[in-house]
Amino acid sequence: MINSERLSSRIEELSQFGKLPKGGITRLALSKEDKAARDLLKKWMEELELKVVIDQMGNMMGIWGESDTPGIAIGSHLDSVKEGGNFDGPVGVIGALEVIQSLKENGIKPKKPVILINFTNEEGVRFTPDMMGSLAFAKGIDVEEAWKIKATNDGKTIKECLKEIGYLGKEIPGTVNIENYIEIHIEQGPILESEEINIGAVSQLQGIYWTEYILHGKASHAGTTPLSMRNDAGFVAGCMIKQIRKLAKKHKGVGTVGVCELSPSQINATSETVRIIADIRHPKEKKLGKFQDDFDAYVSKITKKEGVTFEKKELVRFTPVQFSEKIVELISKKSSELGLTCTEMTSGAGHDAQMMQRVCPSAMIFIPSKDGLSHNPKEFSTEKDIENGAKVLYEVLKELIN
Ligand code: HGY
Ligand code: MN
Ligand code: MN
């Protein structure tokens, strides 16, 4: 049914692109490492005689079956965060490739097209917002606008990078007609492993807000400037980092500051400017909004108190998503028919599936993450767990294409 050895060795083969000496990968969207991974996926798609279509956002589609009836899409992403793991994304893309190859090898003849998709820039680390390729596919961002977005690491635009790596396609994103989308993904959290459950049938995904604050204070001598005379943007940033945790507890959500760049960033001077990005998440939209409002009220208060000014930019405002009950039930049903334990769950992470839910009824299949770890070189899922995820997708897809 599923060739587990082939599946895991392909994921292993992909992990060479962006490989880090201490393990894990850095394969940022539209980098040369991303190009290498895309080229290999394209080769595998062509070997399976899938029709390869690249759209204007560089989303890659491998289409099995020609017809204007709506098809079933499966896939995920190949880009990674900085110093990330080998499984976040590739399990979904290569798992989908394996399912298609196994269906073909088993002589299954789909009654509707099957579309394998590798979405551009799911992580949003080099270019924000995240899930950008699937957002464009769902018409949530205009391509012309997306093309102008500049990389945080080298200032190149999306369009320049797509051209550079040879993935600036002609197809308008979202043209291919899709009836359902299903994505296998590692859970990236501790629930499945700690409860010893094989499969997560993801019924919803929490909302995500990313907000950038540029703080303007005054650089001054660390030794001679009395505390009462400081406008230390670095101190304000520290207060914000502490406050986001406090408010996360209050609102029962999660809040993180992963980007905090001090300038001039030297031992013996207070900070002139700080670029700080807040990532807040909550499964309930109203609570998410209240959490953000409380944080913004705090930022206004602490900056005023410290004589620091700021600019605020909303980078991401993705509301919580409910997935398709029908597909979630199908995932649960097929899991138990396969003798696998399964639980319904909420995704703490953002995924392309949340954008695809805007296009068609979608859902996700989670597999356990070792120690609940992800966005870390030590991210790991066992060959068996990856095989289980692919087996469930195989059975779900077989039913949907019949
Ligand atoms: O941020 C996220 O949750 C996703 O990994 N882009
Ligand atoms: Mn991912
Ligand atoms: Mn990720």
* Span of the ends, CA to CA: 17 Å
Q: What top-tier CATH class of the largest domain fits best? A: Alpha Beta
Classification by helices and strands: alpha/beta
Number of self-contained structural domains: 2
H/E series = HHEEEHEHHHEHEEHEEHEEHEHEH
Question: How many E strands?
Answer: 13
Shape: globular
CATH topology of the largest domain: Aminopeptidase
Helix segment count?
12
Question: How many strands, what sense, and barrel or not for the largest sheet?
Answer: 9 strands, mixed
- The average pLDDT score comes to 97
Oligomer: single chain
The CATH architecture of the largest domain can be given as 3-Layer(aba) Sandwich
Describe the structure.
With 402 residues, the chain is of the alpha/beta class. The two termini are 17 Å apart. Helix 8 packs antiparallel against helix 9 (285-306). It has 2 domains: 4-206 and 320-400, Zn peptidases (Aminopeptidase); 207-318, Alpha-Beta Plaits. The protein is globular. The model has no long low-confidence stretch (mean pLDDT 97). The protein has helices at residues 4-14, 32-47, 90-105, 132-137, 143-147, 158-164, 191-194, 233-251, 285-306, 325-337, 352-356, 383-400; strands at 51-54, 60-64, 71-77, 114-119, 178-186, 199-205, 207-216, 254-263, 273-282, 309-318, 321-322, 342-347, 362-367. The strands form 2 sheets. Strands 1, 2, 3, 4, 5, 6, 11, 12 and 13 form a 9-stranded mixed beta sheet that branches. It has a 4-stranded antiparallel beta sheet with strand order 8-9-7-10, covered by helices on one side.
